[in-house]
Design brief:
By secondary structure, the protein is mainly α. The protein has helices spanning 2-32, 39-65, 69-75, 92-112, 122-147, 153-156, 175-192, 196-213, 226-233, 242-247, 263-275. It is globular. The chain crosses the membrane at residues 12-32, 44-65, 86-114, 126-147.
Length: 276
């Protein structure tokens, strides 16, 4: 029964991402529906949404949530203790170089990928995002697994300089890893095309998940210490969530955190009590 609940929790993650992305897509469609955007406008908008949301969400997690002791303890997902590390300070040079990389990536993606206008059909977008997260998870799993093989490991070592993770470790990677991860993330876009409103929603939610996943907290998307265990053990848990790791037997079993944001985990807790 416990194994079945574990799988349900992983499927719940896919559904939660799809539903949340679909909601934000509706918002972006409402804002942009009557505005004609050429490719350059779309590139700038895509870059701005990605950059602003990355810093805004990261600062909120680190400076608001983590500074509140009660909230931090309530949301803490880390189980394995690690030695605390000082994190590199933000510098003007680092931010500028990071934004140049992001802008070039946005330009290349929107120039090469085919544009598809999918409108605001809620079910259509929900299905697209569900397909998108499952496909993106598989692409990320494969590339991440390769990063931990001997030949590619040096590319990935910069990201693993920090065992005591913070949200902004999500963006701490070598230029080669940045390019490869970007390609794997947008591969489904080249196959299925993009709608700018879908792309903006995906970027916003992708940043939220990625930053939360490196924060050692369980806020909305992360019901466990899944990715935290990957950083503390340097192996296993290569996917965005545990589905593909379970399929390919690379899963380090996480400790789930039940709560209102994670109904499957709460249902498991209730069922286990009733079965005793």
């Amino acid at each position: 029964m416990k194994k079945n609940f574990n799988l349900c929790l992983e499927i719940e993650f896919f559904i939660k991402v799809a539903i949340t992305c679909a909601i934000f897509q509706q918002f972006f469609y409402w804002v942009l529906n009557d505005i004609k955007l050429n490719v350059i406008n779309q590139v700038v908008l895509y870059w701005l949404v990605g950059s602003v949301s990355f810093y805004a969400i990261g600062i909120f997690v680190e400076k608001v949530i983590k500074k509140n002791e009660q909230l931090r303890e309530k949301l803490k997902a880390r189980i394995k203790k690690v030695k605390k590390q000082p994190f590199p300070a933000f510098t003007a040079k680092g931010i500028i170089l990071g934004e140049i990389k992001s802008f070039i990536a946005a330009l290349v993606i929107l120039y090469l990928a085919p544009e598809m206008h999918r409108g605001n059909g809620l079910l259509l977008n929900l299905g697209w995002f569900l397909m998108r997260i499952v496909a993106a998870d598989f692409c990320f799993y494969v590339s991440h697994w390769l990063f931990h093989r001997r030949f590619f490991q040096k590319i990935h070592l910069k990201h693993h300089e920090f065992i005591d993770t913070s949200s902004f470790v999500a963006g701490h990677k070598s230029i080669i890893e940045y390019i490869i991860v970007t390609i794997t993330d947008i591969l489904p876009i080249f196959i299925f095309g993009y709608d700018i409103t879908q792309l903006l929603a995906w970027t916003l939610l992708g940043n939220a998940y990625n930053l939360e996943g490196h924060s050692s907290l369980s806020i909305f998307f992360i019901p466990s210490d899944f990715h935290d265990l990957h950083h503390t053990c340097f192996k296993g848990n290569y996917g965005i969530q545990g589905f593909w790791d379970r399929m390919f037997k690379t899963l380090i079993p996480p400790t789930k955190k039940s709560g209102i944001m994670f109904p499957t985990a709460s249902l498991e807790k209730i069922t286990m009590k009733l079965s005793k």
